[in-house]
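Sample entry (326 residues):
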Amino acid sequence: MLAFTIRRLFQAAGVLLVVALFSFVMFRFVGDPINQMVGVDTSPAERAQLRQDLGLNDQIIVQFARFVGNAVQFNFGISYQMKQPVAQLIASRFPATAELSLVSALFALLIGVPMGVYTGLYRDTLLSRLFMAISLAGISLPTFLIGILLIFVFSVHLGWLPSFGRGDTVQIGGFWTTGFLTKSGLLSLILPSITLGLFQMTLIMRLVRGEMLEVLRTDFIKFARARGLSRRAINFGHALKNTLIPVITITGLQLGSIIAFAIITETVFQWPGMGLLFLQAVQNVDIPIMAAYLLLIAFLFTVINFIVDLLYVAVDPRIRLGGSPA
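Predicted structure, serialized as tokens:
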């Protein structure tokens, strides 16, 4: 287990190094950082001095090594437009995105898995067909359209839920702001979390349904029935357990996708998270924020994949850590 963990950590470090290289190339060669930081009335001498102070005259390998070293220390420089440290900007927006992603992932799992199990066990019932129709709509409709429809129905027409913003927040520990402790914060989470998690919910539901149908046809399930085991023990003790490997894979990847691609949802609902910050950075060509966001998302994906690899062995001990089939 220790060797497996160390090997995965080295692989993760390699992935992050490659992503850092792409981020550095974008940071260094997409436009001139000096032009983004100074005004048109800045003299050539002042521009040259600023370039020297920022180390832009150093060799490329030296600049890349400095960039990686600063990134390890969560130092991503100063935002061109906001004139604030990028790490501070991201830290102030991260709680909003983290809470939205967490609620969306829980919504997708807690609703998608039971719906998948039900449609797999009772695929010819009216409720099962209704679930399949909902899943088809969730996969087919684009995220921004789902958000707009939810706003129109529940905010504009019914007036039950807020249409934008995060609501009231409470600061915890001096650095984390949460909306879980206020009524308006909880109400503000409902529509964006459903919008963000609906696609993942339908994907998980269809995956669980397909795996359940496949597992129920296997010989060991037939043998369990022949032994006289109860239907509950067969469906949940044997069949469902053997569907967890692909579910864990998809869930892990989708959790990273929820965080990475929350940009559309945060834009529709004006949610003050990292996605909205990244979109504003793209509009303003704020390269430090864009590079930091790319590195952060790559780091989150790497951590999630590492956890998924460990869960594989916990769920199915037949999987060998060396990578060969059992």
